[in-house]
Design brief:
about 625 residues, mainly alpha, 31 helices, about 50% helix, globular
Length: about 625
């Protein structure tokens, strides 16, 4: 029967709706916005694919991944001829009835079968821990052996020390791509520890669905306490506590924390022992195993299973802080914590809300203003969310108005009317990350705008919107329209696809001087980031780059331990280490936490290891959001 639970665990592995940011929309318009479709016009260019073009050669054709079989350790697992299993300890002396089976606990099964019984997945069904992840190299992931020769202690420091809050949306997207790749652990680090570190960082980044998918790529039999702790956090943040139940059925003794034991009790309720589970939760309440609100929520969650339902009143008056357990349990049973708790909670709760299918559309849309700016939601995912709002007659008020405005941004025949609709969405969000998220929302609509001299003064936010989703080819159509030395010019100077190595076209330093003189940002940060980005992309000569660095006191070539590490990884062609070190260097709540020197080393290193497209988008994003 425990074997049944193990197989059930594999069968219950859910395929997450993981939003891979920057997937190009299949259609020019969102599905809900296609009626009526705008008339075709040669002045309305079709958006190019939303992944920035890179200098490197095209990636190989997508290949289908195949299971990686890991042989069982020890002696051969095939039974010898004539072995009927009589000596294996797996023979039942008496077959229990169905009624008896329904009432049995895991301990009862162990007593019935004997403690010497060992259940395991057949060798042909085992998955290797050496390459756990979602994407192999043929599917857009990083090369499996990228970290094979890297120092294990350095990788552990980088992954564990990264708080997951990155200033750059494109840096977030690239780091996520590295973390979900099918990578071998560095020498000296166990596969389980490597996976737990990656899952933990994905969770801190707000990538709950991606973290769950990576976690579920290993067999439960291979769990260690570190992986178990990561699993508990994954299922808390996805509000899917029943996802832990296959783990509890076979690895229930892996941890001994209050949260783990209460989650195990909840799983007992969903196994059919709801009365016993609720009684156990009552005992935990009297013992003070966890805070009262946590156990009340657990009782509410457990009470959703079986026939032993009870009324559980949830009162938030004495609750001062929100935790992943409380929020996951609450939205899992259809509750919404008070606004005072949500307002004081960190952005990670907005990321959870934006991805939670059980939360209402309006709450998800509000959370999308944070998740979209961070890189968790793509342009296509955000448009799909607004399309659902537009199609739902139950949603009224401001969010319905915004959905209709977005529809206008796509479907109005007049280009000026479409621009006006986009400007309404941008200004409605105010400033900061929310405004940038709305620019992500309108990226495909902005890419449809004709490059017109009449709109040259409004080009900068349009170009920022396009580049937020990788529509660099569409943005470059404005190159002949925008004024030299303007912010639009600076964005295009960074976003333009590069030339062959050693043949990059240098920018006009006269236009750059004009940009610097006109820059009104605090401490001329836009100009500083523009110089750093151009130098890193090899679009300023060495002498010019040094002159601007000295004149503006940027210190682009100054060295620290971090710059030495990322430069060394770039010289070795170690793409995975470069991405992880770049993510480590881009930590912060906004672009004021980034320095031109760090931006220079990040963009330069990414370009050297083949991520030229992402390097251009990060440099342009820095100028746009400074």
């Amino acid at each position: 029967m425990r074997a049944v639970y193990l197989l059930a665990g594999a069968a219950l592995t859910l395929t997450s709706v993981w939003v891979a940011a920057q997937d190009a929309p299949e259609s020019l318009l969102p599905k809900m916005f296609q009626d009526p479709a705008p008339a075709a016009s040669p002045q309305q260019p079709r958006p190019a694919p939303a992944r920035p073009a890179a200098v490197q050669t095209a990636s190989p054709a997508r290949s289908e991944s195949t299971p990686v079989v890991q042989p069982l350790p020890g002696a051969a697992n095939t039974p010898a001829a004539g072995d009927d299993g009589a000596n294996s300890g797996s023979v039942l002396k008496r077959i229990p009835t169905l009624e008896e089976l329904a009432k049995m606990t895991p301990d009862d099964f162990e007593d019935l079968l004997g403690s010497s019984v060992v259940f395991d997945t057949p060798p042909q069904a085992r998955r290797s821990m050496e390459r756990a992840g979602l994407l192999d190299e043929g599917e857009g992931g990083l090369r499996a052996d990228s970290l094979a020769g890297q120092n294990a202690q350095l990788i552990e420091t980088v992954l564990s020390g990264d708080k997951g809050m990155l200033v750059s949306r494109w840096g977030h997207i690239l780091l996520r791509r590295a973390l979900v790749s099918r990578l071998q652990p560095p020498e000296g680090m166990s596969p389980q520890d490597f996976l737990a570190l990656r899952v933990g960082l994905l969770l801190r980044m707000g990538e709950t669905d991606a973290a769950r998918a990576v976690l579920q790529d290993i067999d439960i039999a291979d769990y260690t306490p570190a992986v178990g702790s990561a699993a508990l956090e994954v299922y808390q943040k996805t509000a899917d506590f029943t996802g832990l139940c296959p783990v509890m059925a076979t690895q229930g003794s892996l941890l001994d924390s209050p949260e783990w034991n209460v989650a195990k009790t909840v799983c007992e309720a969903f196994r059919g022992n709801s009365a016993a589970a609720l009684s156990a939760l009552d005992r935990d309440m009297s013992r003070g195993t966890m805070p009262k609100i946590d156990l009340l929520l657990a009782q509410r969650y457990a009470g959703a299973a079986g026939k032993s339902r009870r009324a559980v009143t949830i009162e938030w008056d004495d609750v001062q802080t929100l935790t992943p357990w409380r929020y996951g349990m609450a939205i899992g049973v259809g509750l919404e914590p008070p606004a005072r708790l949500m307002d004081s909670a960190g952005p990670e709760y907005s990321y959870v809300t934006a991805l939670a299918p059980m939360v209402g559309l309006e709450r998800r849309a509000a959370a999308a203003d944070r998740a979209g700016a961070a890189g968790i939601l793509s342009n296509a995912a955000m448009v799909d969310l607004y399309s659902q709002i537009y199609a739902d007659p139950g949603v009224t008020g401001d969010w319905q108005d915004r959905a209709e405005t977005l529809r206008d941004a796509y479907t109005q025949q007049d280009a000026g009317a479409r621009l006006s609709a986009m400007q309404t969405l941008w200004s409605d969000a105010g400033t900061g990350p929310a405004r940038y998220a709305r620019q992500v929302l309108t990226a495909a609509a902005a890419a449809r705008m004709p490059a017109s001299q009449d709109m040259a003064g409004d080009a900068a936010p349009l170009i920022t919107s396009m580049l937020s989703a990788g529509y660099d080819a569409n943005a470059m159509r404005w190159a002949s329209v925008v004024p030299s030395g303007s912010e639009s010019w600076g964005l295009l100077a960074l976003a333009a696809p590069g030339q062959a190595p050693g043949q990059a076209k240098a920018v006009d330093t006269g236009a750059l001087d004009k940009f610097i003189d006109a820059d009104e940002s605090a401490d001329k940060r836009k100009a500083a980031f523009l110089v750093a980005g151009l130098a890193a992309l090899d679009r300023l000569g060495a002498n010019e780059a040094e002159r601007y660095s000295n004149d503006m006191t940027l210190g682009l070539r100054d060295s620290t331990r971090w710059t030495s590490a990322i430069d060394s990884a770039a010289r070795r062609g170690d793409a995975a280490s470069v991405v992880m070190l770049a993510g480590f260097g881009m930590q912060g709540t906004n672009w004021h936490r980034m320095t031109p020197r760090y931006l220079f080393h990040i963009v330069s290193a990414l370009r050297q290891v083949g991520f030229e497209g992402e390097a251009r988008m990060i440099a342009a994003e820095a100028v746009a959001r400074a």
